[in-house]
Amino acid sequence: MTTASRAVASPRVVCIQDFRPLARRRLPKVVFDYLDGGAEGEVTLRENCRVFEDVTLRPRHAVAVSQCDLRTRVLGLDLALPFLLAPVGYSRLMHPGGEVAAAHAAGAVGTAYILSTISGHRLEDVKAASSGPVFYQLYLMGGRGAAEASIERARIAGFSALVVTIDTAVAGVRERDVRNGMKELISGTLFAKLPFLPQVLAKPGWLANFLVDGGVRPLPNVVVPGQGPMPLVDIGAALAAATVTWADLRWIRAAWRGPIVIKGVLTADDARHALDAGAEAIVVSNHGGRQLDGVSPSLRALPEVVAAVNGRAEVLMDGGIRRGADVVKAICLGARAVLCGRAYAYGLAAAGPAGVARALEILRVDLERTLRLLGCPSIAALDKSYVNLPDWARH
Asked: pLDDT tens digits, residue range 214-226?
């Protein structure tokens, strides 16, 4: 066992939440808050996790479950686990391994990894690191030419699906990032950086790794024609200039012949638009509470979207997953599978590749134990009969 593995072994790390103080200790405040924080008052950020308390479980006791089948199928792909690793922008800030480490860990447990456009590693390297399926999450940063080039690279590299995020007309105001000087530290002058440097200098281990890794790199998967890779500067401005509309789905569909997933759906109306645009899957998501604050937590929005889709596409859910019971509740409310973002990113930030592997193992063991205690033999057997539904879930 490596030093990193020992650092996140039991009893030091027993649940996903145990990674959080370890990540806080290792990262500069600006990087930890980028991972940990949400938009504005962080109401939706908190509700994404709390809302699972509204749904209680209905176990079937005195049932012998000799084996639990955790497998599911997403977009025709056989996954060993009903959770995928969600896109987490510029994971390389949290650990030099970043997206490559996360993709490798996902493949090792037989599930899929979704790579953010805002990645520190080349999409080809991320795909090569995983023995499982990898999806590419698309922003239109850098314009249509840059997007078409990255789509073609993803096709050639063997990515399994394209995930189009629709909830970033502008970047949400993440007040922690503003206070910590994220923009100044990434792209400001030395004079602008000075007030914010002490938090970085206070974490010499992280800083040494960051500098050895090359510091703030340009975005290797956003190559602007005639200009080269886009610098990691004001992502907010880049997103505001790259709003995805339903009309864009026509040329995106022409450029990408594989499955398209629409991420960021919270209402029946948007679910129907996604179906009209030819989406094979829809992700119910509020961007981890990082965009518009005060919207429905993802679990609460899930039943409305499931009812509107009515089996015409697969429905996934993203937001607030921290335990196996959370995965079970989302599936009972109609999700085919869930996406986990912070759950593995805290592990990455705490201990690099060993932290991601440990986070996924915690979720797997937790999920299997929950199924056994429910008296349920498989993910496929889960349905509403295993939960008490609150009023908001009765669609």
From this structure: 998 899 999 988 8
